[in-house]
Amino acid sequence: MDATVFLLKFWGWYCVIFFFILSFNPRRIKQIVDDLQDQKFTILIAFLAIIIGLLNILFHNIWEANISLVVTLFGWIALLKGIMLFTFPQTTTKKITKLNIKFVQAMYIFVFLIGVILLNEAYGIVPF
User: Which of 65, 73, 101, 124 is the most exposed place for a label (fewest CB within 10 A)?
Assistant: First the structure.
C-alpha cells in the first residue's frame, strides 16, 4: 500500500471517528481542555503528537498541489502542536482554554468534512 493512501485512510478515519465521539459526547471537549491543566497529561499528549507528526513527515513529506499536501499538512500540524505543548505548555493551554466550545464544535464539523474527503480519495468511492 502506498504511504499516501495509508495516511489518507489513517487521517480520514481519525477525523471521522473523532467527530462522532465529540458529537455523541460534547462534554469530552471540556474534559480534554480541563485535562490539559495536568502537566502529566499535557506531556503525554505532546509526546504522542510529536511521534505521530514526525512519523507522518518522515513517510510522507510531499509538497504538491493535490490531496498529498493535506496529508503532509496534517503531519506538520501534529508535530508543531506537540512541540508547542511540550515547549510552552502554559501558554499553549491558555490559548486552548480561551476557545469557545461552539467554535470548537463548528471546527470539528469542518474536520469531519475533511475526513470524508480524505476517505473518498483513499477508497475512490465518488470519482472527481
Answer: 65
